[in-house]
Amino acid sequence: MENVTIKDLDILSEQDKSEAIALLSRYEQMDAQEKCKTDFLSFVKHMWGGFIEGRHHKIIAEKFNRIATGELKRLIVCLPPRHTKSEFASTYFPAWMMGLNGHLKIIQCTHTAELAVRFGRKVRNLIDSQEFQHIFPELQLQADNKSAGRWTTNQEGESFYAGVGGAITGRGADLLIIDDPHSEQDALSPKALESAYDWYTSGPRQRLQPGGTIIIVMTRWSTKDLVGNLLKKQADEHADQWEMIEFPAIMPESDTPLWGGFWKKEELLSVKASLPISKWNAQWMQNPTAEEGSIVKREWWNKWHEEAVPPYNYIIQSYDTAFSKKETADYSAITTWAVFENEDDGSQNIILLDAKRMRVDFPELKKVAWEEYKYWEPDCILIEAKASGTPLTHELRRMGIPVTAYTPSRGQDKVARMNSVAPIFESGMVWAPDETFAEEVIEEAASFPYGDYDDYVDSMTMALMRFRQGGFLSLNSDYQDEIKLMRKNRTVYY
Q: In terms of domains, do 247 and 107 share one?
């Protein structure tokens, strides 16, 4: 029957053909139902009319298949909002698992009890549906115990639903599912984030049966959220070791939407433009800034709120170059900075005037460099003397543009450079306008060295090191260092 098609039935009479088509259709239906028992994604497609498949669904489904076979016991899935996180993990998956194993004890938790009960109702109704019963006819819900927040099966299985902070004592779980343990209000409070972790360790984690499975699916909020705490705990080899998958809304390697069948890139960019960069990076790109490990803190930047930038007396333009449009290539970054006099204390300060990041071929980069030079008329252009920067330096010099080849001192790696300019930020001498490009630079600097990108950081550190070395800026520590050196070199006779 597997190789039989409608065309093969043309030799039959109309009545026989009609009966054969009905049998064939029934066979295909039975075959689809059997696939639903062994493959989670097939189950979802069969049960969910109008389902739009994305690349992340295939990966998640493969992990869920491994959980069903007992191969995988600890899984973290981080997804952006509105990417079927809860439908997959909190609705279809627990129903499927209960169909495979009707005596499972399942505990599901989310940030509020009301939402948890809503998940319970969805799973209960799904199991009660005719389509589900065709696939798993042996599983039935107990008629006398089928409330939305707790229900049992005819095979002694049980599902219990609770909010973060709710009591789970006295219950055991073969499968623990935690879906979005943090609310938006929690994300604003480090104490609330810590409380969620305390609740997890004192409650749900202790309810897990030997050999049980834990799934945590959530949107990232902070390095101190539940996932952040669990990942830190992994340093202890005896702690739970998690298999983790993260899905950014826009894939960095291809610059395309994760779920292109549902989200258009323009829509995602609109979301990005409407949010602070820190929230976009955390919630939509699954890349929360590790503030505690950053060299340059976000709060060290001064914000310039006026529409017009202050009168400046010297401009430096700095390039971190890459000459390729390939999706896997690094970005080329251009930052433009100016020195101005702070009216409050007369000190020399720095302000970020502009920042651009792009993947371009060499001819296009040369064109952009020329346009940036004409617009800003910088007093100095810095380009690092590396393989990709040398040709651009030569080309711009031929065009009459004053380029300074920057060669870092030996031992001056990216981290060392950032450390060398950190005192400038800490002293409150660096300003940035209220613009999206500035937020992107600030966020990348705050996430360094743990962020995904460092193109802006490389460009920024070159410019600030040049300002300091050129005598445009001076710190109190510079004077102190001079005093120390003078004293060290003196010979005193008594």
A: yes
